[in-house]
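Fold it.
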Amino acid sequence: MRASRSLLPLALLACAAFGCVGATGPIRDAARQGDVATALRLYQDYTETRGLGDADLLAEVAVQVLRSAAGSEDAPTRAAGFSAIAGLGVRGRELLESLSERPGVVGDRAAAALYELNGRSGTAPARLRAALRSRDRERRVAGMVTLRGAAGARRLMRWLRAGRAPMRASAARALARWRDDQAVTAALVVALRDDPEAMVRAASAMALGGRGEDVAEALLAALEDRDAIVRMAVPSALMAASPGRGREALAALLVDPPTPLSVETARVLVARGDARGDAYLLRVMGTATRRELRAQAAVGSIGMATRQAEALLRLMRDDDHEVALRVASALASMEATRQEALAALRPMARLPDGFVAIRALSVLAQHGDATAADPIREALDSPDATVRRLAVLAWSDATGASGDCDPLVPRLRDDDRSVALLAAVEIVLIASR
């Protein structure tokens, strides 16, 4: 009898373990079948019985949310799914491997993502070489990762000249890898000057960055392009191509009254440590009458925080919350000004404007402020999808070492696709910590 009693705790432990395994099986089965609603309902029942969450199990459900989106027949949903998986980095490898076994565009995109994840090393998958001959543009774009050398450049240049607009833009972006090929440079210059589509001209401008003095004239001319999307792409490309000439050309664009292009130009100069950019952005933040330009200028605060801390500290109390928030966020990144910045962010975190409040809370959470967790949890249920999206991203910092993913569970079924996919990514990342 004594022996039987001594075995009782072990038997109970085994039963408990078996019960847990038995409870998790239906959750996994529902998730694998794509029935996320049932999987989450069963998961909530399981965690209520268990008394605590199970991040690893929830991550398995989250992976199925990503798998479903990436495997969708709807192109925008599929694109969003693969973009979300890219956010997992190496942790998305197993999911990509399983998706790469599928036929058609889904398998091609997964194989391309895997090939890039592996640094494009080794022999390219045969299916990607075959995808280059497909009539489906998305499959051909996936196959572009395999192109190398002069033959690959020639193929991309043909698409740049004769494809449909989205294909021409994809070809321009892909050609950025051929920096030392003069024929490629010439083709991109022609596209920047002559292509009728703004998206292609903008992609060509960005691809010309870093190609040296020879492309400076073409980029300078593109500052007069009829479309803002092209003009806004030029300053960073010009500075990358010709830093010396770019500095002077861009400094001449720091005009009054300011424009979106002049503010972007100043931001590029700030990133290069140019004091003229610092002075311009500070002046715009302090005196411009258009709020959107002041907010745009404040984005450059992070680039000059170490040089202009004293001037930025004054702007941190600005009546415009967008300016104050962006400046305080930049100053929070520096130890010398962090405490003052966090003190300025705390009142902003309590503002009724949810878009401002959640960004302030996110910065507070990044710097270990324990008071941010509860408001971020509340923001996860905001009626504003943008606020929910930012709250999902902030939760990873707010949860800290606890790794509590359960507040993100409802967001896996969010009506906004981007919120659901971000929640899935964050759950996987939190569970892997």
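Confidence is low (pLDDT under 50) at residues 1-19.
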